[in-house]
Amino acid sequence: MVVMKMKFPFEKRVKLAQGLWLLSWVATMAGAVTFTLGCVLKTELRRRAEVMDNTEIHVVPNTLMIVGVASLGINYFAGRICQDALDAGRFPRWKNFLKPYFAVSCFFTVLMLLSVIMSYAMKGNLESSLKIGLKNGIRFYKDTDTPGRCFQKQTMDRLQMQFQCCGNTDYTDWFEVQWISNRYLDFSCKDVKDRIKSNVDGRYLVDGVPFSCCNPSSPRPCIQYQLTNNSAHYNYEHQTEELNIFVVGCREALVSYYMGLMNTIGVGVLSVFLIQASVLVSLRYLQTAMEAVAGQENTEIETEGYLLEKGVKETIMEYLDPVFKFLMLNKVEEGEATDS
Amino acid sequence: MALMKVRFDMRKRVKLTQLVWFLYWVAVMAGILVFSMGLFFKVELRKRSELMDNNESHLLPNLLIGVGIIACGINAFGGKVCYDSLDSNKFLKWRPMLRTFLVSCVFFNALLIVTAVLCFVMRIPMEFTLAEGLKNGMKYYKDTDTPGRCYMKRTLDMMQMEFRCCGNNNFRDWFEIQWVSNRYLDFGAKEVKDRINSNVDGQYLMNAVPFSCCNPSSPRPCIQWQMVNNTAHYSYDHYTEELNVWKRGCSEALLSYYGGLMNTIGALLILVTALQVGVTVGLQYVRTSLMTLCNPDNPESVSEGWILEKTVKETFFDFLRMLKAKFKRNRVEEDDS
Predict the structure, then answer these.
(1) Would A61 disulfide with which of A41, A319, B147, B302, CB 3.0-4.6 Å?
(2) Model confidence, pTM
(3) What ipTM was assigned to the predicted interfaces of this complex?
């Protein structure tokens, strides 16, 4: 049972070949665009790598880059094939090449679609990675003299200023951590000694936030310290005060930034996917139409083109048979080896 | 005696015309580039016009935009003329107006040179505008409830964070003005009353700077308040402390940013001027070589091209004589009437 049969008179074949040649060039540009989009996403992820705990999310831009490079190759061959297609003498030399070519092209095209789905599916992964990374950033904020962590303060400050956010979930995360280094605490002072004794771990906790949490849009100079104490500041009520410091947590800000970026990139990649799929479908029709011409004396006869010779299931089994045979062959060899 | 005479045969003429045509299209791109740089500069000035007290001079970006558009027009026309010069019939169409076109090109090149010089010279008035503007801007930092000035605080904060600077000349400028609004001062407190009584204008002055002056690279949390009092903070010496707040003044930071931008545009303009002079000379050679064909009916004959028909001195005196003659003719007409 043939899938999607279509009749192709000579003019239609010629038009198909010409259209396909043009489309393959468009698809090559689109492949380059996909590669560029993958690079952009990877660069953006690497810029904030210090506040991410793992690099699992990097599978999305890596896939995009691989698919972009592969589509350059696929479309180059598509252009060459359709140039030779109209010449009945030169077309047969592509015969053996086309079956594995279609298998590989379909694989990479499906991979393109998968990468877009992955970018949505990995949101949870990104969020948990950021949660741990930001928690560490806040914990090591004060360690500006420890090698390997001395830039955490700078990273966190610049991140909070750029993304207009404060803390991990919100600004109260800073209240639970000692973010002032011991080098700048006067341990003979009564206030310091009281604060350190007030908790089990002996940490100097304040209900204050670093300056990078301050919101420039606030009408009053920034209140950083004694945030929950209404009487410490004139005309101040911390429950209703909204503009003083940033209320958004940095995890939420970063996740929404990256999701927005991946949405934009996803739209572009989906359109590239459509172009690539149409190139493959047209090439398949051209191939099957030209195969019927081979061996005929009159090359201008009308032929039929189709997508799949047998049904979908049978075609898949046909492609997977060699793979299974290869695996079965290995099993038989192992069995013989253990016997002897 | 002509200036820089060159002999041209058919092939050399064609090659010259093609080269000048190509250069004209490069010059059109250059004109577009100058236009876009003028637009960019104008946008950058308007973005920070609040900090310059809305006093900044838009002469330079407007001039750049105008020059860019004129350059595009002149070079596109010149390219068309060059393209037509390859065909002697079409060239006859353009021949009468080419002389005026070339003279206007010379004036345009002079305008380009003037613009390039302006780019480097305008740094000086910009320095004064910035100093004045920032001083006034800082005075309005606290007026977040006054319509028309309520965004000054935000603009100043964002600018100090972006350009990594503090105050006008340095951070001490903040000590001399009241930057905390009266709405947030408790006039019942003794400390507030003392500070206000301590100076003639009754302003609440502190040895403190806004949070936007803080340097994120500092190893310790930012010290904004009581900055010159070493005993107020543990292990702090304000004489040796370098990383706490930004040391640079904002007028210096902004001036170096705008100055760098103007220097780049000026250098670009010099290159564009050189290109423009080149195409003008090229077109003059094309015109004169086509005009002096030995045998006008045979387009393949040899001809000569030059930049000026007589020497520079003689051309200049000819020009003056022509002006005098015109002026005299006008006087005679007036006398008659």
Answers:
(1) A41
(2) 0.82
(3) 0.79
